[in-house]
From TrEMBL:
Its main location: membrane. Residues 44-428 form the Major facilitator superfamily (MFS) profile domain. It is a multi-pass membrane protein. The gene is ynfM. InterPro entries: MFS (IPR011701), MFS_dom (IPR020846), MFS_trans_sf (IPR036259), Sugar_transporter_CS (IPR005829). Gene3D superfamilies: MFS general substrate transporter like domains (1.20.1250.20). The keyword Transmembrane helix applies. It is found in: Cell membrane. It comes from the Bacteria. The chain crosses the membrane at residues 50-66, 86-106, 113-132, 138-161, 173-191, 203-222, 254-275, 287-310, 317-335, 341-363, 375-396, 402-424. This is Inner membrane transport protein YnfM. Belongs to the major facilitator superfamily. Keywords: Cell membrane, Membrane, Transmembrane, Transmembrane helix, Transport.
Length: 431
């Protein structure tokens, strides 16, 4: 298959069967216009890739650092599993709301400064959580942290779509998602390992300082925007109109639903796997459980490879493959032996980062104008999946144990597979 999009594919994304027949544009505005693009192989290209990797690392290490600490929260503060998961769910829930605001604000104030402010503010609030005297104070600070961090993911997608040459957009988006995978791994793994030798408060403090340094590195590395045009004085009607326009696009809501389902399954799996592995017959310590999160390295490579494959083979087949890999991984976690469970976790991780890398890159190409708004809608759905479905999994864990959690995740992935099929059919019709 040729790597160059056909003229028809550039003109539009045709609605899959079962949807309205209205063509949905895959707009040229989603990519930068030569010669202002950051060209692959240039110094600016290398700096941009490293800076966006740091942005993904910082955001996700801060956001998900509490996941391996959930059993510690239940012990120290006397809360249940569902209540302990609020330390993560509140952060992702407020981040989902913040993304809408951040996408709109970035249209007026610029991408680079907003991303730096979000990274630095999130790191400082994380330090505050490490010093918080009570459970409720931790929840408040975690909610604020999630809200502040919303400036990074929505704006990063828009920056890449505006500045990176189209032929390298998929691979660069994959590297950014790889940074999120690496950050998520190091946040989880670092928290568990440090807690073995110190306390969870010290571990959180160390991570906060590390990510404050990452924010400074990001500011020094990221090239200024060359294709961004500020929109001053825009009102609420402008933003509502931009969001509504993206929702009328027949393909974009399917991508939003894909992100919602994918992250919901991923977070739900890891949230309650920590409780399963800490209980009999495994009875693993926190440090041992945190080693499971080393499988996130697979996500780093999978996301980069998925972006490049999507550019070459098409997004539909790679997205579908990612969902199927997640499903196989979820099924393997039912095995009673620890090696089988870890193999399942690898499958869930690889499949998820394939899905996210493809879907997030596809949003940037399919959206017509107002790319920050399109990215914000995708990430709103994405993090609502983490917050809502991640917490809902706690009900299944409480009432049916791990088999119930697996059944819940399998149902969500069945829906995700149907959505991926619709997107694939639309892509084939457009091509």
């Amino acid at each position: 298959m040729s790597t160059a999009p056909t003229a028809r594919a550039q003109r539009g994304f045709k609605a899959p069967a079962g949807l309205a027949s209205t063509a949905v544009p895959e707009a040229r505005e989603a990519a930068c216009i030569e010669p202002a693009c950051i060209e692959p192989g240039s110094v600016a290209f290398g700096r941009a890739r490293l800076a966006l990797f740091l942005a993904g690392f910082s955001t996700f290490s801060l956001l998900y650092a509490v996941q391996p600490l959930l059993p510690s929260f239940t012990d120290e503060f006397g809360v249940g599993a569902s209540q302990a998961s609020l330390a993560l769910s509140l952060a992702t829930g407020f981040l989902a709301f913040s993304i809408l605001c951040a996408g709109a604000v970035s249209e007026a104030v610029g991408r680079r400064g907003l991303m730096f402010a979000s990274m630095a503010g999130g790191a400082l609030l994380h330090l505050g959580s490490a010093l918080a005297p009570s459970w409720h104070a931790i929840l408040v600070l975690r909610a604020l942290e999630g809200f502040v961090l919303g400036g990074v993911p929505a704006v990063a997608m828009a920056y890449l779509a505006e500045e990176i040459h189209p032929r390298a957009l998929g691979a660069t988006m994959g590297l950014y998602v790889g940074g999120t995978a690496f950050g998520g791994m190091m946040g989880r793994l670092g928290m568990g390992a440090l807690t073995e030798f110190t306390t969870w408060r010290t571990a959180m403090g160390v991570l906060g300082l590390l990510d404050l340094a990452a924010a400074l590195g990001f500011l020094l590395l990221l090239p200024p925007s060359r294709n961004f045009a500020r929109r001053r004085g825009v009102n609420a009607a402008y933003h509502i109109g931009a969001w509504a326009g993206h929702l009328r696009n027949r393909g974009l809501p399917l991508l939003f639903l894909t992100g919602f389902l994918g992250l919901g399954v991923f977070v739900g799996t890891f949230n309650y796997l920590t409780f399963r592995l800490s209980a009999a017959p495994f009875s693993l310590s926190q440090g041992q459980i945190s080693l499971v999160f080393a499988v996130f390295l697979c996500g780093v490579f999978a996301s980069s490879a998925a972006g490049a494959l999507a550019d070459r083979l098409g997004r539909g087949p790679v997205l579908t493959a990612g969902v199927l890999i997640m499903g196989a991984g979820v099924a393997l976690t039912l095995l009673p032996a620890l090696p089988g469970i870890i193999a399942g976790v690898v499958g869930v991780t690889v499949g998820f980062f394939v899905v996210h890398a493809v879907a997030s890159g596809w949003v940037g190409r399919m959206a017509r104008g107002a790319k920050g708004h399109a990215a914000s809608l995708y990430l709103l759905a994405y993090y609502l999946g983490s917050s809502c479905l991640g917490s809902a999994g706690g009900l299944f864990w409480t009432h049916g144990g791990w088999p119930a959690v697996v059944a819940f995740n399998a149902a969500l992935l069945g829906l995700a597979l149907a959505v991926a099929g619709l997107l694939w059919r639309g892509e084939r019709r457009a091509a």
